[in-house]
Amino acid sequence: MKTVELIKNRIKNARCAVLGFGVSNVPLVELLIECGDEITVHDKKDIEKLGEKARLFADKGVRFVTGENYLDVIDADIIFRSPGIRPDYEGIKRAVENGAELTSEMELFLELTPAYILGVTGSDGKTTTTTIAYKLLEKKYENSDRKIYVGGNIGTPLLSKVGEMTERDICVLELSSFQLFTMKRSPHRAVITNLSPNHLDWHKGMAEYVEAKTNIYKRGCEMLTLNGNNELSKALSVADDIELALFSADYSYEDIVEKYKDKPEEKSKSAMFIYDGHIYRYYNNHVLKVLDLNSILIPGKHNIENYMAAISLTWGMIPEQIIKHIAKTFGGVEHRLEIVRELEGVIYINSSIDSSPTRTAAALSALPIKPIVICGGYDKNIPFEPLADALNERARAVVLTGATAEKIYDALKQSSSQIEIHIEKDFERAVIKARSIAKKNDIVLLSPACASFDAFDNFMQRGNRFKEIVNSFN
User: Are residues 296 and 315 in the same domain?
Assistant: First the structure.
């Protein structure tokens, strides 16, 4: 059945409100127009700023409600929420109380797709873990009629492809806490890479953030992988009917044997750990060597953990030789420890994806020397003390920029930091400052530890601007 027919059967001529005219909702509106539904788009930006697509949709009969009060009155049967809009706005709550159904593009996809779903969430490492899992599956089924898709918070929205999917196909989804917040279905398999303070400008607290993440397994998940070295992950409550797997780059063989030897009730659980330079998997009193760490092309302990998460997520689906092949050939995802160029003996690295202190700490630990780090950006109301500790331990100098520059500076000073600190609020001037203090054999690392929204639309735009500036140096 075609995608439009599937959606039409589900919507049944309902009046639809689409909240937010972003990346995932634009193709959703296109599909709803094809279904012939009555559609109202709500967005803070006026229609001129929303661009040509909005004007084309308006010409086709789509109604637009814009301005500061765009969510005050929502008159619809079905409301599609953009991930960035909280569901507890008064206008949304009133509409739901009056009988409207609240859903989202991703929730509709999970409801309609017949494909087998693997889901990835976490505070850090989601995109790399998702990409590794996708590449493992893509390689395995490259000569098969079984199709492999990747989407969610990464790549192209998948709802438009749901009509071509079958039960034999597999989707790997990266899912944010915003998407999971109201999720009513879980993937068949899921992994939580780790949990640490993040997006606390949007969530009402850490408890709500963690609770949102747990929706990845609390709505029908069959198999869950958790980070055994992350305290918040280990503390999660997991139902007995979910097959649980753990991974940790800090486990040893002795740790695993000690953990399981006298606990027959835990024999069904598995664990992935490091021993003698290899990733191993323990299951039901059996230990299997999985992967030589030296074969992993992308650097850093955090990327070892990303491989462990992806391998555990796809366990039983991928043969050993394909795991080895991907490890040796996958060079990483753009904007993640991406080498931009070497100039005058200085290496410039773009890690714009690093939007939290824990991610910046991981990037620093992956480098062979202490770099000059460009930090700062949008304020997500997360603490910067852990970032100060990481910078003090692993950075030679830091250039602070963006809205959080002063906050990070204060955290460094309170930690009695001895490293060289510069503040350049303007992003381009910060990159130029980093170049001016760099010497031969130095590394200049863009690892902001913050989101990009103070100056850029997203981390990709920030990373691309960094590359433009660096490549303009002569």
Answer: yes
d(Cα 351, Cα 222) in Å, to the nearest integer? 34
**DSSP for residue 451:** B
Q: Are residues 317 and 342 in the same domain?
A: no
Same domain, 165 and 78: no
> Tokens 């889901």 appear where?
119
pTM: 0.83
Same domain, 255 and 298: yes
Write out the DSSP string of 189-213: EEEE----S--TTTSSSHHHHHHHH
Relative to beta strand 278-283, strand 286-292 is: antiparallel
323 and 373: one domain? no
The pLDDT value recorded for residue 229 is: 86
- Residue 164's pLDDT band (cuts 50, 70, 90): very high
pLDDT of residue 72: 96
Tell which of 312, 329, 346 closes a domain: 329
> What is the span of the domain harbouring residue 15?
3-103
Place of tokens 């609240």: 102
Residue 429: pLDDT above 70?
A: yes
SS3 label, residue 391: helix
Find all residues with CB under 8 Å of 109, minimum gap 6, and list them: 157, 158, 159, 162
Could you report the per-residue pLDDT of 295-337, keeping only the tens digit for each?
A: 998 888 889 999 999 999 999 999 999 999 999 999 888 898 8
Question: To which residue do tokens 């690892």 refer?
Answer: 447
| pLDDT (mean) for 170-198 | 95
- Per-residue pLDDT tens for 431-449? 999 999 999 999 999 999 9
pLDDT at 350 over 80: yes
Q: What is the pLDDT of residues 384-410, one digit of tens each?
A: 999 999 999 999 999 999 999 999 999
Q: How far apart are CA 471 and CA 474, in angstroms?
A: 8
CATH at residue 454: 3.90.190.20
CATH number at residue 72: 3.40.50.720
DSSP string, 423-449: E-SSHHHHHHHHHHH--TT-EEEE--S
Domain end, chosen from 271, 301, 329, is at 329
Rounded Cα gap, residues 198 and 209, in angstroms: 8
The pLDDT-based confidence of 24 (bands split at 50, 70, 90) is: confident
Integer Cα distance of 169 and 384 in angstroms: 43
Q: Domain check: are 289 and 386 in the same one? A: no
What one-character-per-residue DSSP string does 75-144 give?
A: --SEEEE-TTS-TT-HHHHHHHHTTPEEE-HHHHHHHH--SEEEEEE-SSSHHHHHHHHHHHHHHHTTTS
- Whether residues 73 and 185 fall in one domain: no
Count: domains in the chain: 3
The answer to whether residue 267 scores a pLDDT higher than 50 is no
Structural contact between residues 190 and 223, judged by C-beta atoms closer than 8 angstroms: yes
